[in-house]
């Protein structure tokens, strides 16, 4: 089975690792709170091992492993008649969006995406919204214009 030929920006890997680091930071704060409660109420000291293990697992999975797998799996391809998306960590989802179904295309940028010059494309159909995350800004703009033009042409053919 042939995969879509375009990949998202490699900077997405760094961005997703930062998101994983933020999630891990929240667990570190909870672990500190637990440590304070252990000392205040004289709870068993081994309880602190639970959040430490959780922090280690979060570092391995959300900062290192999951962003790498996610980046390797995310692919897309735009042709004259359809948009093909492939993504998923353990279950790979492949989606075909016919150009005649595309209603409009948006680009989105949050503060972190803007800092790393990335953007997310949202492709709206009548039923749902499909997103292509973390594209290079220029590629996102080129893709938005391209899909918009192709959708307009496809609509005129109907």
Provide an overview of this structure.
- The chain crosses the membrane at residues 12-38, 44-66.
- Residues 71-147 form the YdbS-like PH domain.
- It comes from Halobacillus salinarum.
- Keywords: Membrane, Transmembrane, Transmembrane helix.
- This is PH domain-containing protein.
- This protein has 158 residues and is an alpha+beta fold.
- 52% of the residues lie in helices and 24% in strands.
- The protein has a four-stranded antiparallel β-sheet with strand order 1-2-3-4. A three-stranded antiparallel β-sheet has the order 5-6-7.
- β3 and β4 form a beta hairpin.
- The longest helix is centred in the N-terminal third of the chain and has 31 residues, at 11-41.
- 19% of the residues are buried.
């Amino acid at each position: 089975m042939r995969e879509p030929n375009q990949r998202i920006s490699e900077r997405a890997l760094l961005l997703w690792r930062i998101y994983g680091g933020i999630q891990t930071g929240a667990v570190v704060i909870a672990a500190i709170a637990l440590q304070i409660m252990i000392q205040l109420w004289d709870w068993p000291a081994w309880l602190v091992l639970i959040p430490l293990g959780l922090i280690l697992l979060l570092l391995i999975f959300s900062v290192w492993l999951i962003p790498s797998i996610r980046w390797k799996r995310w692919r897309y391809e735009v042709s004259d008649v359809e948009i093909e998306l492939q993504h998923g960590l353990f279950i790979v989802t492949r989606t075909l969006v016919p150009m005649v179904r595309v209603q409009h295309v948006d680009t989105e940028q949050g503060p972190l995406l803007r800092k790393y010059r990335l953007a997310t494309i949202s492709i709206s159909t009548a039923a749902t919204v499909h997103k292509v995350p973390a594209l290079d800004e220029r590629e996102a703009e080129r893709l938005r214009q391209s899909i918009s033009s192709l959708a307009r042409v496809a609509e005129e053919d109907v």
